[in-house]
Amino acid sequence: MDKEILPTPTTETIKIVRNEYGLTDSNISKSVDIIHKWLTQQPHLPDETDNGRLERWLLRCKNSIETTKRTLDMYYALKGLVPEIMYHWDTKSEWFSIASKLFFEIPLPTLTPDRDRVLILGLQTPDTRHFDPVMMYRITLMILEIRMMEDYCRSDVIILDFNNYSLAHLPHVSLPRVKKYEMCIMRAYKVRIKAVHMLNVPPFAEHLISLFKSILKTKLASRIQVHSGDMAKFYKQVPKEILPAEYGGEAGSVLHLWGSWVKKLECYQNWFLKHQELKSDEKKRPGKMITSTDLFGFEGSFRKLDVD
């Protein structure tokens, strides 16, 4: 495995990111202690003992202890309510073997000058025989779990490459599952999305993108950009040199980078199997239990997606 696939955060990067929200060694320690104590007092929640993970939740919650508490509560609740995405984290399973050859999701090794992490997502093949977005959703969360322990950045810049997508993929996409995936990303992990760049968008997808943007909160919808033809505007926002070779950069090939990430995921096999079992026990929750209906409503409904 390439040790530099997710380099250890530099002291300078940690300082810059912390300064944005007034975080210091002292107040981080105090806040993490408060959150940890609160967790031990919740009869329905497991005890999160990794201070590094708690610090990153605090960071994603903009240094708000109360928001961090609510986020952790939602994280453990969703692990019980959305097992199709937040369970089955087994890198030795058949689905993972298929997914690793079908999709790619690469957090690029080098941060932007603003200390943002760029992630590229796409398909390796146009073959739809085994295409199931749920596999990609699982991998996204598994990568997020690793980043909650190893990464340190201000926010995420997402690149969606539509190369290899066709109309044949659309019947496999379920909006209720997209809704659950979105809630996991935004409510459980508090992912901060700075921008979404869409590349190689086929004509049939442009209308769907407009429809999708219409159900987003204005703040997030405004951060979606579709690039076609001239890439100069894209390169002004995402430094060309940090990108994979296929996008004109110097980071190596997509397959090499993704192969390193697959190996990294496999190295976390035991951790995944242990931690996928940690979820809220809603029968022990003080007050009203959280149910799937509370969070997602009826299968046909699709509330506006939010962004922090």
UniProtKB/TrEMBL annotation:
Q: Which residues form the CRAL-TRIO domain?
A: 136-255
Q: Which GO terms describe its molecular function?
A: phosphatidylinositol bisphosphate binding
What CDD domains is this protein classified in? Answer: SEC14
Instruction: Check the record and name the PROSITE patterns matching this protein.
Output: CRAL_TRIO
| InterPro entries per the UniProt record, alphabetical | CRAL-TRIO_dom, CRAL-TRIO_dom_sf, CRAL/TRIO_N_dom_sf
Q: Which domain of life is it from?
A: Eukaryota
A GO cellular-component term linked to this record: membrane
Q: What is this protein called?
A: CRAL-TRIO domain-containing protein
Annotated organism of origin? Diploptera punctata (Pacific beetle cockroach)
Highest lineage ranks of the organism? Answer: Eukaryota, Metazoa, Ecdysozoa, Arthropoda, Hexapoda
